[in-house]
Amino acid sequence: MAVTLKDIAEKVGVTESTVSRVLNGIPKASKETREEIFRVAAELGYKPNQIARSLVTKKTHTIGLIISDLSNTYFARVASGIEKIASKYDYSLIISTTGGDEKEELKYINLLKEKQVDGILFASGRMPASCKNLLKETEIPTVVVAREVEEDLPSVHIDNIKESYNAVKYLINSGHHNIAMISGNKDDKESGFYRIQGYKQALKDNGLKIRDDLIVEGDFKLQSGIEAMEEILKSDYSITAVFAASDQMGVGAIKAIKKAGLKVPDDISVIGFDNNIISLASDPELTTVSQPEEELGWHSMEMLYQVMEGRDLKERKIYLPCEIIERESVRNI
Amino acid sequence: MAVTLKDIAEKVGVTESTVSRVLNGIPKASKETREEIFRVAAELGYKPNQIARSLVTKKTHTIGLIISDLSNTYFARVASGIEKIASKYDYSLIISTTGGDEKEELKYINLLKEKQVDGILFASGRMPASCKNLLKETEIPTVVVAREVEEDLPSVHIDNIKESYNAVKYLINSGHHNIAMISGNKDDKESGFYRIQGYKQALKDNGLKIRDDLIVEGDFKLQSGIEAMEEILKSDYSITAVFAASDQMGVGAIKAIKKAGLKVPDDISVIGFDNNIISLASDPELTTVSQPEEELGWHSMEMLYQVMEGRDLKERKIYLPCEIIERESVRNI
DNA sequence: CAATTTTAGTCAAACGCTTGACTAATTAAA
DNA sequence: TTTAATTAGTCAAGCGTTTGACTAAAATTG
């Protein structure tokens, strides 16, 4: 049987309340009893039962993270960032993965509610209305991570439009005028979608023509990058650069270009997105825009902490900047 | 205020116990009351308070995962595997990262105990005696993942000696006799250490000489692979193959070899370890031994489930097999 | 020195649920 | 028709803490 307050109380000869207060540092005891209580507690190896404590305090010091997929480095790194800050504030982290499925999301919101978590971090799907409503109904403080979300809920993300705009601008500034794009899933209303927008806007603002056959859709994975690049190469050999919406597709593109007998960056430049470790593994090394995954985690958890503490947020929507990492795959012409 | 059993009980006109039993599917009520209770529960949006429930049942349906580092793909994938099985059994997962630090490990074991988790999965450092004792003292079912551990505690891992033996054997079978190794940290008594053993054993069993200057130590990261390879190249140009204890070091090696004006695999073959995505990104693609990370997660959680259910384990120590993935970086001579 | 404040506690309720023991009424069996 | 068994509940204790209200003794103040 686990040691309880009662055991200590009996042994010392005081009531549980006294023991409780002493152990919580409330100075309502003589020096002697205090010392005796600490002594006995240590001797018995007392560990407070947080469940019992939570029942009365209505705080679990636990937060729930609803996330798509831990085996994806991107999400794993934001989870890692979250965990670090949570731990700093003495919060535990319950992680639930959903694969972006709405049913799962709903299920886990309910579960977390039942577990009485003090807050929820949502880094999963596109946050359907059902989730938003449920979240609102449960009244648990929530912040959304790395996902676009209309209105109300506090959130932290990167500005996909702006950052891909910058990537393409970088290509343009390097003298490229014929720029293809390998996009992610076009219709997910998320990064895949927004990055195309940034690409188009950059072309437009610089008087370049948007050619739809030069935007080919991948699925963010390496193989799709190879296939997409092959298709681009088929349709138009005159391009001098390509913007890939992920590093995996970027290195896929490099592979395809090399296989076609062309050189990177001499014949075709490529820029990726993510700054995944694989951008360093490819040959040539991939120039890319780095996403601050860990920082996304940090900020979201800091933000959640603020709202759990009942403080007002200065900003309810935070955009973290990305950075272009110049390596070997883009040539100045 | 949250809806409680009492609210339902009052509204229906029965006692809390009846409501409790009905909601838990214990058939001690008439069809009418049962239906009425479900109706009212739904109407009020009742969600059971698991904290209160846990206090009496002494089960939290939560398990704790103590892990080194989530931003490391290897551990992230193990965690992902664990989460999937945990979720299958309706267990929640509290994740704590330690960076392999013993103090942190101890801290989290205590914390998890206080949170009354039903079980612990330990995938962190080398499991110092202090942890083992604490774990034993807390009496929480525990299984160790991906870490060597002497005796008692159930565990699941890969056999590092055997698998690296096989990798080197594969090189030997391909006709190589002069094989260097880029190892991980030599003295960690973990994978770094054991993989060297496997390498040595394979050489020995095949009548090849072990030359200590051909084993150079890295830290599993890409950059260290480059440096290690440069050193090897300096000391001996006659080698025809190198075994890298990680894929990152493997692609580092490839980079260094290419920079030295040599070709992979024509001049020097290289084999890695992990089957990380970067093995696909490199040029040439890296032949490697794939580790079953997700499966490590699955099995450990399945095992933990068995012991939480009080069942006896058929095997207390499970080794999962790896597989050699043949790609482009090894030549047959 | 009486009045007040402080100190060092005690007592009991409460948090929301489960569960064993009990009861009254109904149904089935003999 | 009496007895036994089943059904549909109720009652109250208990899980391990916290916490507001209370009290008796000691210390401080005017």
The CATH homologous superfamily of the largest domain in chain A: Response regulator
In terms of quaternary structure, what is this?
A: homodimer
Note the gap between the termini of chain A: 75 Å
The CATH architecture classification of the largest domain in chain A is 3-Layer(aba) Sandwich
Tell me about the largest β-sheet of chain A.
6 strands, parallel
GO molecular function (chains A, B): DNA-binding transcription factor activity; transcription cis-regulatory region binding
Protein name (chains A, B): Transcriptional regulator, LacI family
Keywords (chains A, B): DNA-binding, Transcription, Transcription regulation
InterPro entries (chains A, B): HTH_LacI, Lambda_DNA-bd_dom_sf, Peripla_BP/Lac1_sug-bd_dom, Peripla_BP_I
Q: Can you describe what's shown?
A:
The structure is a homodimer of 333-residue chains. By secondary structure, chain A is an alpha/beta fold. The first copy, chain A, has three domains: 5-57, 434 Repressor (Amino-terminal Domain) (Orthogonal Bundle), CATH 1.10.260.40; 62-158 and 293-320, Response regulator (Rossmann fold); 160-290, Response regulator (Rossmann fold, 3-Layer(aba) Sandwich), CATH 3.40.50.2300. Chain A has 13 helices and twelve strands. Chain A has helices spanning 5-12, 16-23, 31-44, 50-57, 73-88, 102-114, 129-138, 160-173, 191-205, 222-235, 247-259, 278-281, 293-308; strands at residues 62-67, 92-97, 119-123, 142-145, 155-158, 179-183, 215-217, 241-244, 269-274, 287-290, 317-320, 323-325. In chain A, the strands form two sheets. A six-stranded parallel sheet of chain A has the order 2-1-3-4-5-11, sandwiched between helices. In chain A, strands 7-6-8-9-10-12 form a six-stranded mixed sheet, with helices on both faces. In chain A, α1 (5-12) crosses α3 (31-44). The longest helix of chain A has 16 residues, at 73-88. The radius of gyration of chain A is 26 Å and the shape is elongated. The model of chain A has no long low-confidence stretch (mean pLDDT 94). Chains A and B meet through α4, α5, β2, α6 and α11 of A and α4, α5, β2, α6 and α11 of B. Chain A binds a DNA duplex (30 and 30 nucleotides) through α2 and α4. Chains A, B: Keywords: DNA-binding, Transcription, Transcription regulation. Chains A, B: InterPro entries: HTH_LacI, Lambda_DNA-bd_dom_sf, Peripla_BP/Lac1_sug-bd_dom, Peripla_BP_I. Chains A, B: Residues 3-57 form the HTH lacI-type domain. Chains A, B: Pfam families: LacI, Peripla_BP_1.
